[in-house]
Each structure stands twice: as structure tokens, then as C-alpha cells.
Amino acid sequence: MAVIDGEQTVIGAGRSVGPEPGPRTLSAPPLPPTAPVDESEAMTEKTAVTPAGHTTPPARFSHGVRKGNILQTAGQVGFLPAQEGEPPVVAGPGLREQTLRTFANVLAVLEAGGASWEDVVMLRVYLTDTGHFAEFNEVYDAYFADLKGVPAARTTVYVGLPAGLLVEIDALAVLD
């Protein structure tokens, strides 16, 4: 049953019973009242986070965004620190070099936003080749061996990275 132009209409099985066809508006029942909103929380601004040494993004996005106690990094790749007027340079041809540089780039965004690896609750990893899973896991396990609380992680294969790049990682952090 739907409410159309203030009249109840039964719709189903390819037939409609109710007012004659014509222009109609659908309406939904009113929503219940919501809990009061803390104005200071609702007014928190988003802040772009761009660490020193990172390239200017090629489009209208930030390397990270912080809103309140939430920090989301954009996907980071294995580029070496930016050199003024020079194109980005990949850390190396291998997965290990690129992964370690990518971790360093993610960490730079986290630190510029006031976070650390201990604040990260989720990592999303994009590999360009299913054959890289085992090697990536070895590098990941060694890199985070001393981390007190490991984040949830999701790894998938993605074929849309620019030529020469093998891994992209983004992180979601919640600060105390």
C-alpha cells in the first residue's frame, strides 16, 4: 500500500487499484523525532591533511582529511618524496620497496593529522597482482611486528594503478 496524493492505493501484481492515472506525488510516513545533536560535534570542520614532501594531488582531493577524531588517508602509493618541478618517482620496481615507501607515505599523512599506526582501525590494501599476496603479507607482518593493536585489514586486487605502481594503501584512524 502506498499513499499517493493523499489517497491510499494498493499496488502489486502489475495492477493498481485507486484513483485514476495521472500526475501523482508519493509521500512517506513521518519519521520519528531524533535525539538532540551536540552542536559542537555537528559543527566540526573537515581539515585537509597534506604532509611536507607529498606531491600536489592531480585532482581536487586531499592526501588525508580529518573531521573531529576521525582521520581518513587517501590512497597512498610508493612515490619517493616530491621534488619541486619534477614528476613523481616510484621507490623501486619491486613490491617490497614500494610497500615500505607506501607505509612511510601513509604514516606521514597520519602524523600530519595527529595520529599514529596505533590509532588506525582499518587498512585497505590494493595490489595489482594476485601473485603478490604472499610477499605483501611477509612485508606487512614484519613492518607491524611491534604494533600493540593490529588494525582490521582488507586486501584486494586492483588493476587501475598507474604504470609501474604495484600497491596502494589507505588508512582510517580514530584518535582518542
What's the layout of helices and strands?
Elements: E1 2-4, E2 7-12, E3 15-17, E4 26-27, H1 39-42, E5 46-49, E6 64-67, E7 70-73, H2 95-112, E8 120-127, H3 133-143, E9 152-157, E10 167-174
Parallel strand pairs: 8-9
Antiparallel strand pairs: 1-2, 1-4, 2-3, 5-6, 6-7, 7-10, 8-10
Helix pairs in contact: 2-3
Give a description of the structure.
Strand 6 and strand 7 form a beta hairpin. The protein is an alpha+beta fold and 176 residues long. Helix content is 19%, strand content 27%. The chain contains three helices and ten strands. A six-stranded mixed β-sheet has the order 5-6-7-10-8-9, with helices on one face. Strands 3-2-1-4 form a four-stranded antiparallel β-sheet, with no helix packed on it.
